[in-house]
Amino acid sequence: MASTKDPSGRIFYESTACIAVMLFRVTLGLKSSTSIEGTGMVPAPSSAEETLIHILDDARTSGFIETMCECLTASGSSVISGSSNMVPAACEACKSIWYFIEALEIISIKGQKYIFPLNFSRHLSLSQPDSRIRDQGPILGTEAVETIDMVGKLFLGSKAIQIAIYYCFHNGQESALQAALQLMSRICLSNHSVCDILCGMPNSSIAIDGLEIGGDGTVVSDMFSILSLCAPYLNKDSGEIRNQKCKLSNPRSLVLHCCLALATITYCLESRGKFSASYVLTNSQKKQRTRLSVLAHLSSSDDRVASSIQPHSASAMLALSWLLSLESAETGKSMMCETALTVFPPMGTLRSLLKLWLSDVQESMANINGLLLNWHGIRDVCVGLLEARLKWGGPLTIEQACSNGMPQLLIYSLADGLRKDVAEENSDAKDRIGLSPVGVVWALSSLCHCFSGGAFREVLFKKECMKLITDLTSDVHLKMLRNWKGLGGGDRGVADLINAVVDLLAFPFVAVQSSSNMPLASASINSGFVLNIGSPGGRMGAENKEMIKTIETNMPQYVQILREIRVPECILQGLDFIDSKDIARPIAFVAKMVGYRPLALQLLREGLLNSSRVRRLLGGSIPKEAVLDFLMIISDLARMSKDFYEPIYEGGLLDFLKEYITNEDPDLRSKACTAIGNMCRHSSYFYSLLATHKIIDLLIVRCADPDRRTRKFACFAVGNAAYHNDVLYEQLRRSIPQLTKLLLSAEEDKTKANAAGALSNLVRNSNILCEDIVSQGAMKALLKLVSDYYVAALSPSRGGAINESPLKIVLFSLCKMCEHAICKRFLRSSEFFPILTQLRSSPDSTIAEYASGIIARASEA
Ligand SMILES: *[C@@H]1O[C@H](CO)[C@@H](O)[C@H](O)[C@H]1NC(C)=O
Ligand SMILES: *[C@@H]1O[C@H](CO)[C@@H](O)[C@H](O)[C@H]1NC(C)=O
Ligand SMILES: *[C@@H]1O[C@H](CO)[C@@H](O)[C@H](O)[C@H]1NC(C)=O
Ligand SMILES: *[C@@H]1O[C@H](CO)[C@@H](O)[C@H](O)[C@H]1NC(C)=O
């Protein structure tokens, strides 16, 4: 098959075409034999089928794929050297490869009913709760998968093959296009980096210098040309082909596969962190508009009043949804989104589509040729568009959605055919397969967007709705999802689902965060911060005051519901399924829940601080914000009650705290100090433990930390470590010079107050440190502070400023010290003593009282 012997490419072409025809017949034969059964049983193959399988076996053993890829290589090489003679043969080779894979797929999924993880998990948990997860719907036979992987590898590794495929798109006939599109969709999913090549990223081989990404000369550009070519053939009114002289035999199918390929490419780009639709739509606004418009046109090119949604329209909606989902919320609404929204179907249309889908469209879609189409979630129809619309459309769109009853429809779609109590109108629909994994995430996200339009009332305070949502994180569903090979499955699918559920459940917590009278607001102002920025609850502004008030009032009820449906348990179980890099949002949600005692108790009961979990979380490489939130969780629990001390100890937190207290990141150091401080707040439980873990010395060093917050909280922790008894006094002796220094330097008032408070605790339980207190100048420093503040303290008009200042705590500290003889002696001889006499007449009664107390004690013998 060397091209040197066949310069015209004729022989080459004839032989590959012959193989293609043969394999095409095989797929037809297999298809017709499988469509007869449809019983769900796997029958013994008929003799005709055996013959077909035999042909495939022959192909396999003779190294068929390798040979076809050699054809592609030869063809691509000849293109590179300037001849296009081999292009027709490349098209036939491409077709042959595709038919071969298609045949393997047909065999491997034969007899299996198609079930999405959602329906599967519900069906399973309802009927046979403990049956094993064995039959997980069509997972491709390993042979089909292996073949796809192999082609993918060869494609990635060979510039010539890439060029050959590009020319199949560029010059090919319809059958070659069909084949190439399906092949590309599959190898993209098998290795996501294939999408770079199809878009013409700088390092892909097709890309010529200066080529625009997604622009002319790339495969995606050709895909849009195909769509533009097909669009006029699809009549808007009747769905019939208008142009009788149509050169395309099946424009619908071409559009379908083209859109699915685009959706797949976009999905892969997203998973590679390429968050911009311009990778597919180019940077040219004109091209963007044209491409978005053709997709929008195809989305609506069937008659909506009719009772069916056509697969090609559904696939165009899917591609549009994916493209929009590439635009990142963090960088704000782009021009692209603006453009897209103008071509989107209006809300009323989306509602009709969703209703249609809920009534019977699944039936009509069920017969789409090729079960694997379901990998893409083509059956979700318009849920993705709705999500994009809500995400980018602003408050007005959300209002429209709510007044169109979308929240209820979304609940129905999630409940589809399952719970009669929730989805009463639709309970008669029987053989429905519900939402795909991607559809579930889109539906949840859409619902959450609707909350800020008031829809939270219909969902969050209804136990059965909430149960429906939390059931999505059941063991069975998550396992199914992890094994799902299509779009929206795998580890990433699990993370997306859990994050969507978390956003939804966290909505009330986030919405009320601004209110100051919620529990622990001052301590956890930053906990769960990742949720505050990314989720709809965080966008509730001043205009939603009434709603925030309602949520606030109903918070106890909400907490009760979360407890009853065991949300803490669900989330903790979810953590075990999720990759540590994706853990930030669920941990942030836990951090929010911990602020409410009933939820905190349940979280602990369900093993939040189980040592193996703690080790898995903190011992692994989790994102910094998750570590911060975990430290906040420890802090909040410790602060709440001494009942939580033992679980904190048993969770093995001390070793981690010791590590974080010396971490190079100041945020972690300061949070670790705060946690330790709270762990010493209610009792001396941790005192000896801190000593044996050698944490006290590290804490003292932190009082001189370069970071101001770390200094502040280190003083707080040192103070609490000295409060309950004098067990740690010897170790804390070294802190006296550090604390003194802070009193005298330019520090925040709060830090000085903490330092003064710590000093008072160091004389509270015994006098063994009094000598150091005097000799290290701590008393002198305290008196110096008194002199700095006393003018303000005597002036009646400046009471406010005094309340902020550390003066009171400084006086309190001096008063404590005066219980010890050595301190008394020092005070009496101090040059500042007369100032204290004056302070007895301060208009602030507390100050006056402390000053009198000091004088009285100091005057005693
Ligand atoms: C995908 O292809 C790239 C480049 O050829 C390779 O480095 C990577 O390991 C492949 N990934 C998988 C999952 O096979
Ligand atoms: C892309 O190509 C450049 C130059 O050929 C090379 O230096 C760089 O490492 C490549 N990048 C990747 C991601 O392959
Ligand atoms: C889910 O799958 C089961 C099992 O195949 C099927 O009987 C049922 O009709 C499907 N639909 C729903 C909504 O449960
Ligand atoms: C902690 O979790 C592990 C695994 O989930 C479990 O085996 C163990 O019993 C749990 N330990 C405690 C103390 O709850």
TrEMBL record:
Catalytic activity: L-threonyl-[protein] + ATP = O-phospho-L-threonyl-[protein] + ADP + H(+); L-seryl-[protein] + ATP = O-phospho-L-seryl-[protein] + ADP + H(+)
EC category name: transferase
Gene3D superfamilies for the chain: Leucine-rich Repeat Variant
Residue ranges that the Swiss-Prot or TrEMBL entry lists as coiled coil: none
Highest taxon listed in the record's lineage: Eukaryota
ARM repeat residue intervals: 734-765
A Gene Ontology cellular-component term: cytoplasm
Keywords noted in UniProt: ATP-binding, Kinase, Nucleotide-binding, Serine/threonine-protein kinase, Transferase
PANTHER family cross-referenced by the UniProt entry: PROTEIN KINASE RELATED, SERINE_THREONINE-PROTEIN KINASE 36
SMART domains associated with the record: ARM
EC number: 2.7.11.1
One MF term in the entry's GO annotations: ATP binding
Protein name as it appears in the record: non-specific serine/threonine protein kinase
Biological source species: Iris pallida
InterPro entries: ARM-like, ARM-type_fold, Armadillo
